[in-house]
Design brief:
It is built from six helices and twelve strands. With 356 residues, the protein is α+β, with helices and mostly antiparallel strands. The protein folds into five domains: 74 residues, no CATH class; 54 residues, no CATH class; 44 residues, no CATH class; 58 residues, no CATH class; 56 residues, no CATH class.
Length: 356
């Protein structure tokens, strides 16, 4: 079904038909019919709103003015349409109740929406999907309306929202760039309409740039998340801290655990995703992959061995029975029970856990 945007009112059509023979009769050579670039060209109906009559389409689009030459010339020569003049008849938009609305009567609002000026009309009064952008996506919606790409559906019961008074950029705590998606050109902080709670106060450069460019609106402060910096122990399990790159993203990435609350199982996040993993553990969505491993609080004694490893005394635990930030990236069986001093120090500091 053809998408409708503009329609010639029946009263205007009737009036122009009565007046046309006397006022607008012209020789075909005097009319610039244009070209056939309309998507409705060569369909047997004249879609150019400069013409009226039984040979025209029932819906006339301003975007088809001068773009349906063959159909309109054929209809004009056959006497089934009348030429209304170079500007054609005014073609107002159709509201959802069938009444016509001129563009001058529409309050498009302003561009205070987070997604304003992105080339898409998000105002639900024009079929957009964001209630937050009602009266807040003026440029996009006006452009789309004038191009015939959207239809004005009416005001409804809503009134324009009171604009949020914007502080000076110097008054806003943008935070830092610790978020995983910081510096990607998009503001992800939900205080500016971003969609990542994990990037609260953690996408400073992107959000500052968007705010200063007028592309993001500051919606107000939220409580800054408190990262765990000291080792967290629950039920004898040492969850560690929040030093992992993917901490505070709502999923546990510590490879020691298993269950539906897990994200990626990352060796690098052993003891480094405490907030996510402890929350999932308390919610019952993860358990230790090996229940025999109870962290540093278990009722057993650890045999650290000796310092016979070639990597002993380098400040890093090389014994593969230990895992965590204080452990070496590459672990070899030859170092089992052979790096006692380093591993004991890391274990006591909480940077490794015993996972035989």
């Amino acid at each position: 079904m053809r998408r409708t945007r503009y329609v010639l009112g029946s009263s205007v059509l009737a009036l122009t038909l009565m007046m046309a023979p006397a006022a607008f009769a012209q020789d075909v050579s005097d009319i610039d019919f244009g070209d056939d670039t309309s998507v409705w060209a060569n369909d047997g109906e004249c879609d150019d709103p400069r013409f009226a009559g039984e040979g025209t389409a029932s819906i006339l689009l301003q975007t088809d003015l001068g773009r349906d030459a063959t159909d309109c010339r054929t209809a004009y020569e056959a006497g089934t349409v009348t030429y209304l003049g170079e500007d054609g008849a005014a073609a107002p938009a159709v509201a959802d109740n069938g009444s016509a609305t001129d563009i001058s009567e529409i309050d498009f609002g302003d561009d205070s929406g987070t997604w304003a000026n992105d080339g898409e009309c998000d105002d639900p009064r024009f079929g957009g999907a964001l209630e937050s952008h009602r009266f807040a996506d003026a440029t996009d919606c006006r452009t789309a309306f004038e191009a015939g790409d959207v239809t004005y559906l009416g005001e409804g019961d809503a009134e324009p929202a009171e604009p949020v008074e914007q502080p000076d950029a110097s008054e806003i705590d943008f935070g830092d760039d610790s978020g995983n998606w910081a510096n990607d050109g998009e503001c992800d902080d939900p205080r500016f309409g971003g969609g990542l709670q994990s990037h609260l106060y953690a996408d400073a450069t992107d959000c500052r740039a968007a705010f200063e460019a007028g592309d993001a609106t500051y919606l107000g402060d939220q409580d800054r998340p408190e990262a765990i910096t000291e080792p967290l122990i629950i039920d004898g399990i040492e969850f560690g801290d929040d030093s992992g790159n993917w901490s505070n993203d709502g999923e546990c990435d510590d490879a020691r655990f298993t269950g539906p609350g897990m994200g990626a199982s990352l060796e690098s996040h052993i003891g480094a995703d405490a907030s996510d993993c402890s929350a999932a553990y308390l919610a019952g969505t993860i358990t230790l992959a090996d229940e025999a491993v109870s962290g540093n609080g278990g009722d057993f004694r650890i045999n650290f061995g000796d310092d016979s490893s070639a990597s002993a005394f380098d400040g890093i635990c090389d014994d593969p029975r230990f895992q965590g930030r204080g452990a070496a990236l590459e672990l070899y069986e030859s170092n089992i029970l052979a790096d006692a001093t380093d591993c004991r120090a890391a274990y006591d500091a909480g940077t490794v856990t015993y996972a035989p």
